[in-house]
Specification:
The protein has 338 residues and is α/β, with parallel strands linked by helices. The chain contains 15 helices and eleven strands. The strands form four sheets. It has a five-stranded parallel β-sheet with strand order 2-5-8-1-9. Strand 6 and strand 7 form a beta hairpin. Helix 2 packs across helix 12.
Amino acid sequence: MVTSRAAAPSPAERVARFQQTFRAIEDEVARVIVGHAAAVRKVLGAFFAGGHVLIEGVPGLGKTLMVKSVSQALGLTFKRIQFTPDLMPSDIVGVQLLTEIGGSRDLVFREGPVFANIVLADEINRATPKTQSAVLEAMEEHQVTAFGETHLLPDPFFVLATQNPIELEGTYPLPEAQLDRFHYKLVVTSPAANELKEILRRTTADRSQEARPVLEPGQEGPIVDAMRHLVRQVTLAPPLEDYVVSVIVAATPSAPGAIAPVRSYLRFGPGPRAAQAIVLGAKVSALVDGRGHVSLADIDDAIAPAVRHRLILNFQAEAENVTADDVLREIVRSVKRP
């Protein structure tokens, strides 16, 4: 007896399936979130690239709701951690409790809120640096170590942190090592007048909306794994690869031929993770547009969110009110385009 097997999808079909799924998730989130379309796309792009996201913006712009809606559309488990100055690392990772089991007492590890597919670290820069670093191992290794034991985190695992602008009172700057773990840093701005009007219509009426799961129930993990695997199969032409390398090298103050703004305003430039984030982000953008190869526009679209938080400014930049985005624009302008 001969059993027939379904033919494996062609590369074009896999790209089309990725595009369809990604945009369906986008549309579902848009049912709840007004505006922030570019931010939602970047959040999903970082998720399917296997990275984490830092979102900066003043309170009240819907950052928390956006993250919650993304998790609902993906159908994954979601936990929210409100970072405050008195938050302890054990409040994030978990604690050991003395528990009576079978007539004897033993210490049992109780998992903290970091054990979820999508973790919202809300206002992460309101906690002390010691507590901020509690999520460092989780972000990089997808595991946590508590009381000498290592515990694996769920797969997929995605941290989306929000922070208030550094100038606000009661904030602590994130350590450079932790900033480098974020795939993207996004800056969320206030809504336009027409968007604000729609927000009022949705939030002051006697109805509430939540995003519905787009991925098949019970198949979320395999679908996400397949989409992430496809991202890494997208083609990157050598001239575009050279362009990415040139941007990263041009952002290094100690590099030969560094432009004046880089030498004047930067203490340190980005490392290899910045180049990886640009390339992976560009590959996701290509798939969303239905292509199996990266374009120059994909690269340009990923540079700012992938690099801005990896540029460490010096005191002169702060004194002259020069931002990382200002320096980055000069860097991109100085690099020869392919």
